[in-house]
Structures are given as C-alpha cells and as structure tokens.
Amino acid sequence: MSKVFMGVRLQRLREERKMTQAALAKTLGISPSYLNQIERNQRPLTVPILLRIGSVLEVDPQIFSEHGSANLVADVRDILSELPGSETTSFAELKMLVENMPGVARAILQLQRRYRMMAERAESLEAQFDSNEGNQSALQPSADEEVRDYLNGRQNYIGELDEAAEGVGTITGEALRARLLQLSGVTVLTATGEDTLLRKRRYDSQQRVLWLPDSMNPGQQAFQMAAQLGLLEHAGLIDTLLIKAALSSEAARNGARLALSNYFAGATLMPYTAFLRAAEATAYDIDVLAHQFGVGFEAVCHRLSTMQRPGFSGLPFFFVRVDRAGNVSKRQSATAFHFSRVGGTCPLWIIYEAFSQPGRILRQIARMPDGSTHLWIARQVSSGPAGFAAPSKSFAVALGCDISQAHRLVYAKGLDLHDPSAATAIGTGCKVCERRDCPQRAFPSILPR
Questions:
Q1: Which CATH code for domain 7-106?
Q2: Domain boundaries in the chain?
Q3: Cα dihedral sign for 197, 200, 204, 208?
Q4: pTM for the complete prediction?
Q5: 324-378: per-residue pLDDT in tens?
Q6: Backbone CA torsion sign across 72, 77, 82, 84
C-alpha cells in the first residue's frame, strides 16, 4: 500500500463528530501529537490506524483510498485548464486538493457546471435579441471567436490583402521560393523529423530560414510560403488592419495575424479576378478549381467564402470545418447565416456523414427552424505525413449557400430545389434548437417554450 496523506479529510470527519484531537487520539491509541502530525499531512495514515478509524468513526476505510479520487482529479484538472494562468497549478497540488478536500473539489465542479449553464442561457438570449447592429456581447468572447467575428463582420473579404496579392501576379512554388530569397533574403528548406509534425511551418528570423515539413505536398508548401511572404512583405498592411480591428487581447491579435497571413496566401495562389471567373465558368466545381490552381479541396472551399468584392462578387457561401468529435475549428460566413456558439452542431447535418464516406462529395438540402433553406456539400479531408501508423489529421468541410442561389452550382444537378419535402430539418445545436420532436435530440433545449 502506498503512503496515504489525507489529514484534512480525517480532520473533517473528527470535527463532524465533535471530537477533540485528544479524544480521538485516546480512542485510536495514539498520542495527540501523532494525530496532529497526521492531520497536518506530516505523517501518513497506516493500515492499522485506518482500520481503527473505520471502527471508531463508523466509516468505510475506503473513503481514504486514492483510487476513488482519480476521476475527480481529472475533472478538476480539465476545468482549471480553461482558466488563464492555470498552467502554474501542478498535478501534485490538484491531487492534494482532491484527496484532502473532496467537498471543495466537487463544489468547484458544480460552480463550473452552473457557470456553463448560465453562459449558454445568456448567449442564447443574446442571439434572440441581437439586432445585428453591433450590440456588444455581455460575455467576453474567446480570442478565436473574436477573430471570427472580425472576419465575418467584413463578410470574410479583406480587399486590401486581395489587391496586394493580385500585385504578386501568377505564382508557382518555385517562383515563391525565388521571391522569398530575392526580396526578403529568406531561404526555404525542407525539414524532416518529429518536430516538423507539430507545425505547418517554422520561421527562423535570425537565420532567415523557412522550414517546411517534407510531408507537405507542393500545393501545401506553396500556401505556407505565400503566407510567410505576406508576413514579411506586407507586415505594415497587416499591422494597420490589426489596429483598425481593435481586438481586445494579444491572443486575439496573434490569431488575427495568422488568419490574415493565410488569407493573403489563398489570395496569392487563387487571385481574385482569375479565380472568380474560373469559378463561374465551372459552375463552382471545387475539384476542377483545385486542379486548375494547384491547391486542395479545403483551400478552394475557404477561398470561395471570400468572394465578396463590391461590384464583382461571387456566390455568398458559408464555410465550416469540423472534426469527428464535432469541434468546429473553422466557420466563415459571407452572408447572414448564424453559427451557434452554444449547444454544438446538429448531428443531422450532412457534414458528419462525410466521415463515413471518405473521398465522396455529399449533398444535402437543409431547412433551419426559421424556415431558411440551404444547399450544402460536404467532404472529408485529411492531411499529415504518409506511412503506416503515421499521425494525421482528419476533418470534414462543408460549403453552403441559400437555396435561391443553389441553381448556379454544379452540385444542384438532379436535385429538386423547390420541393419542401426534399429538405432535411436541421438546427444550430440541440440546446438552442426549437425542434422539440427531433429524433436525434441529445440535450433538452434551453430556449423558453
């Protein structure tokens, strides 16, 4: 048996029975100073003393077992990981808290559950009463949400970066390498090893070397080179955009800087005018566009959601990326489609079906609770190094548009866009969905009846 230090728990049991240290020590057959050391965690609880405690205090000695605390330690650790500065809390401290003060640990869990419930209710009510006229949220958004709000507020279109990217001209991977070396003195090298699996690119500003993992295909490498080119050649423009964005935290500014550099990369490889004309000519056929511009399926979907130049705009798309667990890592909207921040997403949405049919483009006519109807297409995408058992990432991406514009897409062929019965009834997430009779409901709705 390992040494058990649970003095606070023993002290609580003693006080509940209104016993002094001297009285309990006498009953246990030990000295008051020995009991005092046990309660202060200066000495462990031995098996004979545990058995005597069980008999005297009429409790199961298993309440002092460490095994029953493992789940509680994990739960408290998960909660604290969401708080800023929690990285200074060690596992040993959490273990000591749970083992000695399990009541306090459970109270922390209860407080966190109540906070989440109230936060979800507040965001739900705000969504109902938001007039889309710039109302300030009562809850401070996360850095990621703040960046998404900034992009969506601009209809996911950053004209300044698009114009700068068009000035680069038609570009290839080799041309990008040459441009980085000629104008910025940056050498692009291919790296191997475990460290390269942790990031898409690594830039050494001292040596002026851009390292790219060898697992990337040429299109992915070109994208990363273009993103670094944007950070170097257009640092002033990006800084100006960040100042105008008036983001609230350094984390949000860093996230926005990354998003803007990626926007520039997409605009460089898929120049606005040429890309939009090609999209219209192919009826927005994503595979054809990916082949024509040398990029991946996801990159084309993302770029299509940015085609909102005044006077020369493309279809207003919404773009989403999720993983198998339902975590939404990207959501961009060039129109008024509302992505819920609470309650997850709807399991009836075609995007989740894509994981079971890798490689296929799936289609769905979906109707929201407010009556709006959309055409969605979805496909699974994967990235990462090749090889057996090599770590990789798997996502599903979806692109959607209002049903009134769906006839312009090649993916509408063979679908009856005007048949109401052809639409699947979906929602924004169980907790904020009005459909009380949904067969896939996982949680009761928090909306008032």
A1: 1.10.260.40
A2: 7-106, 143-269, 299-449
A3: positive
A4: 0.70
A5: 888 888 888 766 565 555 545 788 899 999 999 998 999 999 998 878 899 999 9
A6: positive
